[in-house]
Give the backbone structure.
Amino acid sequence: MKKVTSKEAKKFFELVKNSNNILITGHEFPDADVIGSALSLFIVINKLYPRKKIEIYFKDKIPDYLKFLPYINKIKTTKKISQKRKYDLGIILECIDPTRMGGIIDFSQAKYIANIDHHLNNQNYLGNNMLNIVYPEYASCAEIVFDIFKINKIKLNKDIALCIYVGIVTDTGMFQWNNTNTHSFSVAGELLLYGIEPYFVYKKLYRNKSYKSMLLLSKVLNTMKFKKIKKYLIGMMEVTQEMLRQTNTTFQDTENFINFIMDVANTNIGILFKEENSHYTKVSFRSDTIDVEKICKNWGGGGHKSAAGAMIEGGIEEVKYKVLRYLKKVLK
Ligand SMILES: [Mn+2]
């Protein structure tokens, strides 16, 4: 496994040291990994350099189940950071390209950019004011951040450890998905030494669902269907705007639904169709046999080999047809 080099990690903290105004941000619809990574960076930089001005901004709101994380109130939400606002350093997390931030900031607003990511198709931003720390073999971005701290011999504490741990647990599916590796386990093991209790985190993350999200799940499970394409078993489910309305929920309540498809024996590809509106459908893919990141590229999407997604033009029925037709074409 290719790991963060000491040169990169040291360069990162040299940039931090030389910057007074720092922005930390990441992809839209932030998840636990990007939020945990951002908060751990915030806590560490703030502890080392209390006088620096550090801001954390995301385009979309923080999911409620992550509100237990330390310093979560430091995160602000905005559609766009004012053009007048300038930074010495912009730390961009988990954005394969700048559009993933959802237009929250222009790169010209920061003198230097640090691009930290574990996604396969990260573009490695070009320019001599860019530091790219991109390692797709890492199961989570939080582990990359951990290694950057470790190389710089930064002392952690329970708050920092908790933020990193949450990123690892969620991005590895509680250490079960096929991106999980010895690095994930060894970092997690080390984090426990700071007083992290796995059951406490499990309860906060997974035993914390709303009743209405369960009602939504029951409707979505009802749509589960299977289809054989060549030798592959494809499982599908859908979420419509009507279901969201009926249960008073949002797409944020559908997190992990797709895994129920993968729970069915012999499933090769799991697909969840989410009706955005009558013109667009968001499609998520999971697989442990097929590179779904490659499949999603066909519609300009991306992600990881085993978990990826794309926004596809068309209503939900049309997109189902499009996706199945494409799979028939590319699956050998
Ligand atoms: Mn991640």
In short: The pocket of manganese (II) ion is lined by residues 33, 94, 118, 140-141, 171 (CB under 6 Å). The first strand starts at residue 21 and ends at 26. Residues 169 and 175 are 6 Å apart (CA to CA).
